[in-house]
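Onboarding guide, step 5: your first structure request.
Type a short instruction followed by the sequence, for example:

Predict the 3D structure of this protein.
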Amino acid sequence: GDMPLALRLARSRPLDSLAPDARLLLLAEELKGGVRANRIAPLSRELAFLEPFVRAWLLAERGREGEAVALLGAVDRDNLLFAARTEHQALILLRAGRSDDALRLLEEALPRAGGRARALRIAAAAGLGRSRNRDRALVLLQGRDPVLARAASALTAGRLHEQPVRSAAAALSDLLLGLAMTLSEGDARALP
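The system replies with structure tokens like these:
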């Protein structure tokens, strides 16, 4: 429901007394508003797995993609989102226009992406198309999947421009959606 009410209630309580969902709500709102990396509210122990990803994307938003990629490279295997580490490194590099580096990481990430592979292919193709690598983008969209075929048609027609994950807020959304998909599919390959 009522997002303004939920935010008012969450803001009215001490941060350390909030449940993880309320902290997540506050984090999402802060990211949506364009908060700086050193000002995000500390995450609870239950949400600590998100912190390196959020901080990496905040660095990427400030043009510090090298530091962002390195931060994600240090994500521990025990992190619940470890499987998404390489995907987000690639997305950050695509955002920065470093398509060759991103493609190397995508080759590693796609076979392990499970149910997130389709969305990752489309996001990568959009990023490659943006950097004028349409042929490489079309290779990512090959196959019999009708959704990928529609994305390839949109790319060819010049309508697949925007990479969906280009900010910390979009990355948080992508990570939570990917986590939910993985949990609902019971895909053991995509979680540690």
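Each response can be followed by summary notes, for example: The chain has a mean pLDDT of 86.
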